[in-house]
Design goal:
8% strand; 144 residues; two-stranded antiparallel sheet; Non-ribosomal Peptide Synthetase Peptidyl Carrier Protein, Chain A; 24% helix; phosphoprotein; phosphopantetheine; two-stranded antiparallel ribbon; alpha+beta; globular; single chain
Length: 144
């Protein structure tokens, strides 16, 4: 039995945990392990995708991966109230977690249509489209 934990129906302990962007997980020292012992590693947030991001385009000048243009990033940032100005806009981050709500989706949709001179088709107007910056950019580039 867990001491100090409230008990849920059926005798199971009730444990509360809030996911963080990167939860440190301490690896124990394992005798006979060939590799070096690492004190912490990043464990992906269970509410976001765990697979590494795949970028489509590359910046030829410095060889860095580029996902979208500056106009897209600036337009998207205007609709994300919980995203700090100095925080990186990652392609796999949750837009809802960054503050995009239903009214924000409508405003963002209108801004993107005006900025890129496109019209989103009805089948593209799903929550999956507005799940991450990467999915939104993929749909947007498919319209151009």
């Amino acid at each position: 039995m867990f001491i100090g934990c409230p008990v849920f129906a059926g005798g199971f302990p009730l444990v509360f945990a809030a996911p963080s962007r990167r939860a440190p997980y301490p690896f124990p020292d394992v005798p006979g392990c060939a590799g070096p012992s690492h004190p912490f590693t990043d464990v992906p947030d269970p509410l976001t995708r765990s697979r590494p991001s795949v970028r489509d385009e590359f910046d030829r000048e410095n060889g860095a991966a580029v996902m979208w243009d500056e106009k897209f990033e600036n337009t998207l940032r205007e609709s994300l109230p919980f995203l700090a100005p100095d925080e990186e806009l990652r392609e796999d981050m949750s837009l809802m977690g960054a503050g995009l709500d239903s009214m924000g989706i409508v405003q963002l949709l209108s801004r993107l249509e005006d900025a890129y001179d496109v019209r989103f088709r009805d089948e593209a107007l799903t929550l999956e489209t507005f799940e991450t910056p990467g999915t939104l950019w993929k749909v947007l580039t498919g319209l151009r």
